[in-house]
Predict the 3D structure of the following.
Amino acid sequence: MVAVAKVPIQEMKDTSRILDLKYKLMTIELLNLAKQRFTYRELSAMVHLPETVLSRYVKGHVLPTAQRAEEINKTLQRYMSLDKELLERIHFDDGGYFDNTAIIGDTLLMERAVQHAVGKFAGKRVTKIMTAAVDGIPLATLLAHRLGVGLLVAKKAREVGVREFIEEIFVPPKTAVVLSLFVPRDAIKKTDCVLIVDDIIDSGETQRAMMKIIQKAKAEVIGIYALVSIGSDWKARIESAGNVPVEVVTPVIKKEPKEKEKRVKRDERSSGNIRLNLLFLSRKSIQLSTAETEKVLSDIPCENKHAPF
């Protein structure tokens, strides 16, 4: 007969209380984030609670019951999806880049992302969180704290005082620059299960480099979690290092820089001008007929047809 270990009833009750408390606090965090977008009157209409009660929740004077916290959470999730929150903060400039300060600098938003990540990797064994310096650190730190596990930061330079490193060299696409990521060799154990966390996946080279560092340490890559991904070129690069689950909250289409668009138009105009000059020389040397000249001109962009000879 197999002996079954009995869990003390008091211990089960304590665990249940802790989980209830965590859920209530998560709901209050969501409510605080909602307060940045909605007035108390609007929130009152959404969750069907008095404004005074909501105010006490937001200020932390009291906590809702477990049942009420669940009702508030479900209601606010309909109005405030994490995907929508991130999209509203992404604004590309003329160079095709965006400032992520409004994302990584909002701790309440980061807490929501932590909740989302915990849900996505629930049931997975995670012993370490890894990110690359520097913008992935806020999210990775909060997630490591929530899970109660260690944090690894892959840095672009060797630090004084560390004897041995695991190094991975990579070259970002469309550049001639060789970069490296370094992690102290004794920071990763063979028994570790590592979740890679970052704010943005662009080319995928940084994430692939972190995967290779973990593999060099003979540890396991549990998956990759990121807030935003740009384009889809990164997928093949990450898959080349291993088949791991990748969870991205908000995929966005890569925006081409306006300078590139202007350059293409300039090239088209330049090409038209060259053809016009050749036409002028040809007419002088072989005297094209009017019909032949009109046929050549029909193939030239409109803005170049009136260029002076």
